[in-house]
Design brief:
The chain is mainly α. The protein has two domains: about 1-55, no CATH class; about 65-145, Orthogonal Bundle (Arc Repressor Mutant, subunit A), CATH 1.10.10.10. It contains six helices and no strands. Helix 1 packs antiparallel against helix 2 (about 25-55) and helix 2 (about 25-55) packs across helix 5.
């Protein structure tokens, strides 16, 4: 799904090149188009099959060749917990987290991609981290008590 969003976003960007303003940074413009396409595809997938998409989409089982199956499983489980927690946030907070931490964009680039001010990016990230802390702490506590 992500590859489809990128491919379709790039095609849309190519079609929209005439609307690109000379002198503006290209990367945020392109990422905004790709991000919009990704959100649209995600909404469509959610309408069709939200539960199946969230459970299987983002788990990466790759790792070092020397990693044991137990380490790989633990890492995959930790990533799943973080992604589940991020997916429980509102769309605005999720988008800010995705741009800043998953795409590794600066605050200025995140602001440009999302079409908001840099201060708004800072507040959304702060609010999102504040909301994630108890969700991830609860999961960590549950994991320790289960062991």
């Amino acid at each position: 799904m992500a590859a489809d969003a990128v491919q379709e976003g790039i095609v849309n960007a190519h079609r929209s090149l005439s609307g690109f303003r000379a002198g503006e940074p290209f990367r945020p413009w392109l990422l905004r188009i790709v991000g919009n396409r990704a959100r649209n595809l995600r909404r469509a997938a959610a309408r069709r099959d939200a539960a199946a998409q969230r459970s299987a989409s983002f788990v990466d089982l790759s790792g070092d060749a020397q990693d044991s199956p137990e380490v790989l499983a633990t890492n995959a489980e930790a990533r799943r917990r973080v992604l589940d927690a991020v997916n429980s946030l509102g769309a605005d907070d999720r988008a800010a987290i995705a741009c800043r931490y998953y795409l590794d964009l600066s605050e200025a680039e995140t602001a440009a991609v999302l079409g908001i001010r840099r201060g708004t990016v800072k507040s959304r990230l702060s609010r999102a981290r504040h909301r994630l802390r108890p969700l991830l702490a609860d999961e960590a506590t549950e994991t320790r008590t289960d062991a």
